[in-house]
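Troubleshooting entry. The earlier prediction with flavin-adenine dinucleotide gave an output that would not parse, so I re-checked the input for stray whitespace and re-submitted. Clean input:
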Amino acid sequence: MIDQRRVQIIHGDEHPSGAVVYWMNRDQRLSDNWALLHAQNLAIGNAVPLALVFVLTPWHRAISSRQWTFMLDGLKQLANDADKFQLPFYMLTGDAGKVLPRFMKENGIGTLITDFSPLREHRRDIQQVSKTVVGVFHEVDAHNIVPVRSVSNKQEFAAYTIRPKIQRQLDEFLQEFPRLKKHPIAWDKRVPAINWDSLRNEKKTTRVIREIVWLAPGETAAQEVLANFLSVQLSHYNDRRNDPNTDAQSHLSPYLHFGQIAPQRAALKAQRFGDNIASQEAFLEELIIRRELSDNYCYYNDHYDTIDGFPEWARKTLNEHRTDPRESVYTQKQFENAETHDALWNAAQREMVCTGKMHGYMRMYWAKKILEWSATPEDALAVAIDLNDAYELDGRDANGYAGIAWSIGGVHDRAWGERDIFGKIRYMSMPGCRRKFDVAEYVRRMDRIATEDTR
Ligand SMILES: Cc1cc2nc3c(=O)[nH]c(=O)nc-3n(C[C@H](O)[C@H](O)[C@H](O)COP(=O)(O)OP(=O)(O)OC[C@H]3O[C@@H](n4cnc5c(N)ncnc54)[C@H](O)[C@@H]3O)c2cc1C
């Protein structure tokens, strides 16, 4: 049974007539999806058909071609699999606020269910749709284990303040999912065929970024990546996850970003795979606490991607050091082309450009050095977000905005010893990295990857 605390009633709570539609956005999967389960419960309760709708909005068209193909290939698999559950899949194109109400009217839909995202694009779309759509409209937090609004009603200060709030409710929410059923009432309308090849090719973007082949998109691949991580890497996670020369991370972030796997499924499985308790706890800390802290930040802070989102002490200290001389100042192009004087930074940038996934430890160093070598903190933030959102397969995510704001703007962190440019923002250095891992080996590996890439 779905916990009603996941459900936000946008309007209409009476039982309407007509079919139910799940407008899928962030949670692009059939299994373990609370929004879809909620939609199916309502449809079965009213003995009506259920359909899935994905809207390719103008903001989807602005994402990089690398993310576009990963998303579309995942959706194509999903559309095929949905058929087995007697669930038709529609792909609409245009402003959600226009195309969805029209679709609902034409198809006699009485109930619209969507999933939750803390990011402004989907929230704006929901607002637009809510102005015109009639009938029931619910939003379901299908992404967070403890729904954002249940965890806290305000922006949390740091991991140590959100952790007890999540842990208090975790047992209630971290439960096994019911199974999606083959839908008992058939959809009797014509479903237009989707030309996936043409959608794949039609990407009109200023930034065509080569797609990734080392990670396959889709729900099945996501489950395989999770299974492999649990059986091979999890036991080393605690000791090795901060060493970019070892493969100790899960690589789940692209799947989590596109909702091709539920964080709750990963957490349930990791809980059962506990031959190394320290590693299990460290992984669950990242997967649950840190990830849900990012959603909390973006949900309660409208300025999550600008300097105005930083805490006051951080803005003050960055302002006090605004005019400090910079040893080097690079343009966005120089950063993008990995043309700084720092071989380690360039290696991290190459890892992101070539593989679509920079190692987690390097992401912190990478963003902090952009602050050090930019004319202003505003420039640094804009460059870091732009490159992260374009090249990382998991980019455009609450984790990215929170991670960059942590690195550059002290979000979820505390004040440290004062120094040039950074003020009291935590600093990271090359010697510090050398103490943690073999920097030369990482640089060599990324050089190799970049060379193979250009062949
Ligand atoms: C500057 C910077 C930029 C970042 N950009 C992104 C981004 O665009 N998208 C993104 O998903 N993550 C981002 N992160 C957070 C983190 O680095 C990645 O989630 C992680 O490296 C993804 O790899 P993984 O799934 O193999 O991680 P694992 O170590 O296997 O962790 C499992 C999951 O836990 C969560 N997690 C791990 N570390 C963090 C963290 N620090 N904050 C929040 N959640 C975390 C993620 O959901 C991750 O998939 C960024 C961090 C920084 C410092």
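This one parsed fine. The chain has a mean pLDDT of 95.
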